[in-house]
User: Fold this.
Amino acid sequence: MSKLQVDDIVNKDDTGSAGFSRGAIVTGIATATSFDGALTGNVTGNVSGNVTGDVTGDVTGDATGLSGTPNLVVGIITATQYVGVPEGTNVLKAMLFV
Assistant:
């Protein structure tokens, strides 16, 4: 095992970042401008952009633009206002009431 202690890693011409053609294993904190691949573990902070694939586990915080095909299944929905069903509306109409 070798040890490398440096302040900066650049390409051989010192004009840009170094390439890792066989990948890199990072322990600790890694900062990236984008990410593509499977993600496991806990994610903290804000997430923006599109999510393609399955999301499992707990999601907390605010979510906007949610959609699902064929269905989006959620647990508890918290509303800021309840409109209700108009008086005299039958059960079928109440189920279809928007």
